[in-house]
């Protein structure tokens, strides 16, 4: 009888030990599973961030390419003796219109780069609405041009340099994000900013030397 009790006791001890070992094994398994899931989440975040950066880089390269054409347009204005501001409008990855400042050459304030480009784009598309288009301009638009951009329903504008004296994309006022207006404009800025600023600086320096 005593031997049977002792045997039962030993079995109970072994069962307790086995149960503890099983618990430790389960804990280790759970920790390993949690670690694996955490690593998977981190890898997913890393891949998403990498894709985001790739998209941003591709977008910036594309923006710079179109802004270079706007700079070429701005140089045409400078050769005429007008303030060097250039503009291009893009739809489906292709330039559909170009414009450069001709205010002095044409003797009218309506010959701003953006107005010319908008007029030509509307004529090409046969519509006053420029939806699904992106406007690139070397200098932040003035009140007239910013208003025309909003009226034409241009969804996105990319600017080279800021216009602290007359800019209406945030410098003096922000017509692109006026809550009272029925159209809002997305803005990207600083694309070839130094090149665009230098165009203006060099132009006005040359005027002072005359």
Form type:
elongated
The number of distinct helices, counting runs of at least 4 residues, comes to 5
- Contiguous uncertain segments of 5+ residues: none
Beta-strand level of the residues, as a percent range?
5-15%
Q: Helical proportion?
A: 55-70%
Distance between the termini: 122 Å
Enumerate the strands of the largest sheet in spatial order, edge to edge or round the barrel: 2-1-3-4-5
Number of strands: 5
What is the radius of gyration?
A: 32 Å
- SS-derived structural category: alpha/beta
Q: Report the average pLDDT across residues.
A: 90
Largest sheet: 5 strands, mixed
The helix/strand series, from N terminus to C terminus, equals HEEHHEHEEH
Structure description:
The protein is α/β, with parallel strands linked by helices and 210 residues long. The chain is 58% helix and 14% strand. It has helices at residues 2-79, 103-106, 113-125, 143-151, 193-209, and strands at 86-91, 94-100, 133-139, 156-161, 186-189. The protein has a five-stranded mixed β-sheet. The model has no long low-confidence stretch (mean pLDDT 90). It is an enzyme of class 3 (hydrolase). It holds the Pfam family dCMP_cyt_deam_1. Its cofactor is Zn(2+).
């Amino acid at each position: 009888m005593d031997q049977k009790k002792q045997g039962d006791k030993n079995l109970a001890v072994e069962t307790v030990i086995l149960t503890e070992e099983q618990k430790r094994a389960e804990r280790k398994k759970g920790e390993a599973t949690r670690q694996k899931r955490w690593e998977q989440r981190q890898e997913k975040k890393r891949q998403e961030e990498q894709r985001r950066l790739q998209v941003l880089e591709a977008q910036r390269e594309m923006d710079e390419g179109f802004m270079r054409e706007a700079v070429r347009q701005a140089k045409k204005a400078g050769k005429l003796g007008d303030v060097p501001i250039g503009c291009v409008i893009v739809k489906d990855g292709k330039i559909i219109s170009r414009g450069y400042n001709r205010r002095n050459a044409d003797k009218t304030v309506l010959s701003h780069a953006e107005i010319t480009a908008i007029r030509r784009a509307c004529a090409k598309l046969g519509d006053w609405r420029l939806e699904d288009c992106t406007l690139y301009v070397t200098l932040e638009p003035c009140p007239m041009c910013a208003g025309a951009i909003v009226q034409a329903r241009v969804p996105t504008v990319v600017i080279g340099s800021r216009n602290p004296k007359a800019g209406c994309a945030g410098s003096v006022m922000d017509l692109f994000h006026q809550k009272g207006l029925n159209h809002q404009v997305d803005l990207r800025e600083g694309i070839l900013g130094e090149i665009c600023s230098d165009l203006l600086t060099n132009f006005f320096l040359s005027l002072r030397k005359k």
